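Hi all, long-time lurker, first post. I run a small reading group and we've been trying to get comfortable going from sequence to structure in the token notation. Rather than ask abstract questions, I figured I'd post a concrete chain and ask someone more experienced to write out its structure so we can walk through it together at our next meeting. Sequence below, copied exactly:
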Amino acid sequence: MAYFNDDQIEKVTLNSNPDYWVDLLTNLAWGDMKKLLNTSKEGEASYEVDAMLLACIKGWNLDDKDGNVLPITQENLDKLQRPDIEQLVTVLGAKIEESKSSKKAS
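-- Answer (accepted) --
Happy to help. Here is the structure in token form:
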């Protein structure tokens, strides 16, 4: 098994409308994660949610009223409904926690 594997993409079907999906990169490299990391004065680490989503969304079929698939941009990300953003953040958060757990176990 190779250490550097191909990107792992998970297709997430949106709960709000199952006709729509988002492809999420679920194995973001540490170098990419560091760019998204914020550290408070107390040493608490957090991630910029929008930046994380923009880095991890690799495709989607979200379209405009004319049926044109929209580009993955901050402007279009801001147009998503709250339940859809929460779903995507939940999936990414679970993958990050899963990754932390598997690294602690090994």
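A couple of things your group might point at:
The chain has one domain: 12-95.
Strands lie at 9-13, 21-25, 37-39, 45-47, 57-60.
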